From TrEMBL:
SMART domains: CUB, EGF_CA. Keywords: Disulfide bond, Glycoprotein, Hydrolase, Protease, Repeat, Signal. Residues 1-18 form the signal peptide. Residues 15-77 form the CUB domain. The keyword Metal-binding does not apply. It comes from Pan troglodytes (Chimpanzee). This is C1R isoform 7. Coiled coil: none annotated. One of its GO terms (biological process) is proteolysis. One of its GO terms (molecular function) is calcium ion binding.
């Protein structure tokens, strides 16, 4: 219970930094306090990381944010499919959630992520991996979570 007393006030202060999610093959990410209304004047970045050899796919199941032209007030910056094994998801809210002077209670978002196999045999320059392996000189064979190189017959 004492942890709750520390976390709740922190959610209502303007936050910076990022929240790492433990490295798993799938999971869930939500806005703060979801499904209850999210706090005003808040920003956080969630770092979703899956094992090397995979990339992150994000699917939103619920999305209820304050509407504004060009997403000026409240927004989520997102990629639906990462290039590498990390994805940054930034959630930002402005100072209020009002519509014509009426306070609105937007729930925020609920999304699921999953690790999707990264084809290491494809162009490495587009993969976004932090420590890319060199391209195979002859044949590249992709498998779930990795790859291996082999030579053409007669070569070593």
């Amino acid at each position: 219970m004492w942890l709750l007393y520390l976390l709740v006030p922190a959610l209502f202060c303007r936050a910076g930094g990022s929240i790492p999610i433990p490295q798993k093959l799938f999971g869930e990410v939500t806005s703060p306090l979801f499904p209850k209304p999210y706090p005003n004047n808040f920003e956080t970045t969630t770092v979703i990381t899956v094992p090397t050899g995979y990339r992150v796919k994000l699917v939103f199941q619920q999305f209820d944010l304050e509407p504004s032209e060009g997403c000026f007030y409240d927004y989520v910056k997102k990629e639906f499919m990462s290039q590498g094994n990390k994805m940054l998801l930034t959630f930002h809210t402005d100072f209020s959630n009002e519509e014509n002077g009426t306070i609105m209670f937007y729930k925020g978002f609920l999304a699921y992520y999953q690790a999707v196999d990264l084809d290491e045999c494809a162009s490495r320059s587009k993969s976004g991996e932090e420590d890319p392996q060199p391209q195979c000189q002859h044949l590249c064979h992709n498998y779930v979570g990795g790859y291996f190189c082999s030579c053409r017959p007669g070569y070593e």
